[in-house]
UniProtKB/TrEMBL annotation, chain A:
Lineage: Bacteria, Pseudomonadati, Pseudomonadota, Alphaproteobacteria, Hyphomicrobiales
Taxonomic source organism: Devosia nitrariae
Main subcellular localisation: membrane
Every ABC transporter domain range: 12-257
Family, similarity comment: Belongs to the ABC transporter superfamily.
UniProt keyword list: Amino-acid transport, ATP-binding, Cell membrane, Membrane, Nucleotide-binding, Transport
Protein name: Amino-acid ABC transporter ATP-binding protein y4tH
From TrEMBL, chain B:
Name listed for the protein in its UniProt record: Ectoine/hydroxyectoine ABC transporter permease subunit EhuC
Keywords from the named record: Amino-acid transport, Cell membrane, Membrane, Transmembrane, Transmembrane helix, Transport
All copies of domain ABC transmembrane type-1, residue ranges: 37-225
Cell compartment(s), UniProt: Cell inner membrane; Cell membrane
C-alpha cells in the first residue's frame, strides 16, 4: 500500500477510515497512503466515495471511525496525555493550512476580483501585509496565465479562467498538498485543456503532493504516478497508470474503464 | 420600476397641488404637522438602527450560538413577533413602572418598535445568510479561514444584497407603526393631527396632509433602498458566476 516513491513518513495516511451517512456507508475501513510529491489520480463511478476521500482530507466532512494522518501528525485527532482524541478547532486550523483544495464549481468569492480572491486568505489568515499578498497574488495569477485579468470579477471570466483563479487562490496559502475535486467537470469541453495545462505546470514546477478526482482518463494516464480505482467505498485496484489503463486485473476496473472509454 | 416611482410621484404631486389649491388650511396646519413628522422620522431612524443591530445579533445567535444563547435569541424573536407592537409599547410604558422601571416616552417608543421590527428582521438576516451557497463556506474552510472571518469577509457581504428588499419592507412597516406612539403621549405626526382635529374639526384637510406626509417619508425609504440595492447588487452581479 505504500506509495512507490515515498521514503519515510507518507504525506497523507488514511488509517481504517470509515464514513457513513446514516446507514449508508460511503467509505468502509479505508487504508491509503500518499507519498510526499506524489501525484495520484482517483477514479471510479459516481457514488464510489472518491470525492469523499478529498472532502474528509480537507476536513469538510467528519469521519466516523479511523484516523487521517497528515505530514507525520494526526489530522482528525490530536494527542493529549499520550492519547489520540478528536481534534479541536485550533488543531484543525493548524493542520488544515497544509492542504489546498480546488472545487468542481470553483467557489470563487463573487464580490472580489481575481487579485482580491487570491489575497483574502493570506491577509486574514496568515496576517500577511497587503502589499506582499498582492504581489504574491499577481505572481500566481501570472503563473496560471491570467496576467491580464487581475481586476476582473468572477462573473466576467469564463469557467476555465475562473478555475485557474481558484487554483491560484489555493496556491497563495502555500499548501503542501493540493486536492483537485473534478475540477474540469463543470467546464465546457474547449476550456478543459487550459485548466489541465495549469495543473501539468504545477506538477513540474512545484513540489506538491497532488491528489485529483477526475474523469479525464487521458490526463490521469499521462500525469499521475499512481491511479486508484474506487468502487463502493473501497479501493478496488491501484497501481501505475500503465497497469490500470493497460492491463487492469479487477473485473470492476475493466467494466468501468471500457464504459468510460466507450463514451469518449 | 422607475416608471412606477414616476407614477406615484405624479399622483402625490397632484394630490399635493389639490391640497394647496383647495384648502386655505394648508398653511395653517402644515408647520405643526411637520414638527410631528420630524418626531416620526426620529423614531423611525433610531428604531431602524436598533432593529438592524438586534436583527443581526439575534440571527447570528440563532444560527451559530451555543444552546443557551440560541434559546435566548429564539425567545426574543418569538416574543416580539408573536405579540402586538401596541401591547409591547403599553407594557414598557404602563407596566414596567409598576416594577420600578420608568423610561422616557421617546425611549420607550424607540425600544419597543426597534425590538419589534428587529425580531422580524432577525429572520430576514438568517434567511439571507442561509441562502449563501454552501460552496462559499467550503471555500473558506479550504482557505483555513475562521468562521468569524468567513462570515465577516465572505458570507455577510453576499447575504447583505439579498437582505435589502425585505428590509425596505420592514422599514416602511416601522414607519407606519410609529403612529402607535401617539397613544403613549408622544407628539408625533398622528398625535398632532388628532390634536388639531379635536380643536378645529377640519378633518379632511388635516388628514390629507397627514396621508401625504407619511407617503412622502415612505417614498424616501423606498427610493433610498432601491439605490442601495442597485449599488450592492452591482458589486456582486459583476462577480456572480455563470
Amino acid at each position: 500500500m505504500t506509495a512507490p516513491d515515498s521514503n519515510g513518513t507518507p504525506m497523507v495516511r488514511f488509517e481504517n477510515v470509515t464514513k457513513s451517512y446514516g446507514s449508508f456507508v460511503v467509505l468502509d475501513g479505508l487504508d491509503l497512503e500518499f507519498g510526499a510529491g506524489e501525484k495520484v489520480a482517483i477514479i471510479g463511478p459516481s457514488g464510489s466515495g472518491k470525492t469523499t476521500v478529498l472532502r474528509m482530507l480537507m476536513t469538510l466532512e467528519r469521519i466516523n471511525d479511523g484516523i487521517i494522518w497528515l505530514d507525520g501528525e494526526p489530522l482528525t485527532h490530536m494527542e493529549r496525555d499520550g492519547q489520540l482524541v478528536p481534534a479541536n478547532a485550533a488543531h484543525l486550523r493548524r493542520q488544515r493550512g497544509k492542504i489546498g483544495m480546488v472545487f468542481q464549481h470553483f467557489n470563487l468569492f463573487p464580490h472580489m476580483n481575481a487579485v482580491q480572491n487570491c489575497m483574502e486568505a493570506p491577509v486574514t489568515v496568515l496576517r500577511m501585509p497587503k502589499a506582499e499578498a498582492r504581489a504574491r497574488a499577481c505572481e500566481l495569477l501570472e503563473m496560471v496565465g491570467l496576467g491580464d485579468k487581475f481586476n476582473h470579477y468572477p462573473g466576467q471570466l469564463s469557467g476555465g479562467q475562473q478555475q485557474r483563479v481558484a487554483i491560484a487562490r489555493a496556491l497563495a496559502m502555500r499548501p503542501k498538498v493540493m486536492l483537485f475535486d473534478e475540477v474540469t467537470s463543470a467546464l465546457d469541453p474547449e476550456l478543459i485543456g487550459e485548466v489541465l495545462n495549469v495543473i501539468r505546470k504545477l506538477g513540474s514546477e512545484l513540489d506538491l503532493t497532488m491528489l485529483m478526482v477526475t474523469h479525464q482518463m487521458g490526463f490521469a494516464k499521462e500525469f499521475a504516478d499512481r491511479v486508484c480505482f474506487f468502487h463502493s467505498g473501497k479501493i478496488c485496484e491501484q497501481g501505475p497508470p500503465e497497469q490500470i489503463f493497460g492491463a487492469p486485473e479487477n473485473e470492476r476496473t475493466k467494466q468501468f474503464l471500457s464504459a468510460v472509454l466507450e463514451a469518449t | 420600476m422607475a416608471q412606477r416611482l414616476l407614477l406615484v410621484s405624479t399622483i402625490m404631486a397632484f394630490l399635493a397641488g389639490l391640497a394647496i389649491a383647495s384648502f386655505a388650511g394648508f398653511r395653517e396646519f402644515l408647520p405643526g404637522l411637520l414638527q410631528g413628522a420630524l418626531i416620526t422620522v426620529e423614531i423611525t431612524v433610531a428604531g431602524a438602527v436598533l432593529a438592524l443591530v438586534c436583527a443581526v445579533i439575534a440571527a447570528l445567535a440563532k444560527l451559530y450560538g451555543p444552546a443557551p444563547v440560541r434559546w435566548l435569541a429564539i425567545t426574543y424573536i418569538e416574543l416580539f413577533r408573536g405579540t402586538s407592537a401596541l401591547v409591547q409599547l403599553f407594557w414598557m410604558f404602563f407596566v414596567l413602572p409598576h416594577f420600578g422601571v420608568r423610561l422616557e416616552p421617546l425611549l420607550v417608543a424607540i425600544l419597543a418598535l426597534g425590538l419589534n421590527i428587529g425580531a422580524y428582521g432577525a429572520e430576514v438576516v438568517r434567511g439571507a445568510i442561509i441562502a449563501v451557497p454552501r460552496g462559499q463556506w467550503e471555500a473558506t474552510i479550504a482557505l483555513n479561514m475562521s468562521r468569524a472571518a468567513a462570515l465577516r469577509r465572505v458570507i455577510l457581504p453576499q447575504a447583505f444584497v439579498a437582505m435589502i428588499p425585505p428590509w425596505g419592507n420592514l422599514l416602511i412597516e416601522l414607519l407606519k407603526s410609529t403612529s402607535l406612539v401617539s397613544l403613549i403621549t408622544i407628539a408625533d405626526l398622528t398625535f398632532r393631527a388628532q390634536q388639531m382635529n379635536q380643536t378645529t374639526f377640519r378633518t379632511v384637510e388635516i388628514f390629507i396632509i397627514v396621508l401625504l406626509l407619511y407617503l412622502a417619508i415612505s417614498m424616501i425609504i423606498t427610493v433610498g433602498m432601491r439605490a442601495l440595492e442597485a449599488k450592492a447588487a452591482g458589486a456582486v452581479a459583476r462577480g456572480r458566476a455563470h
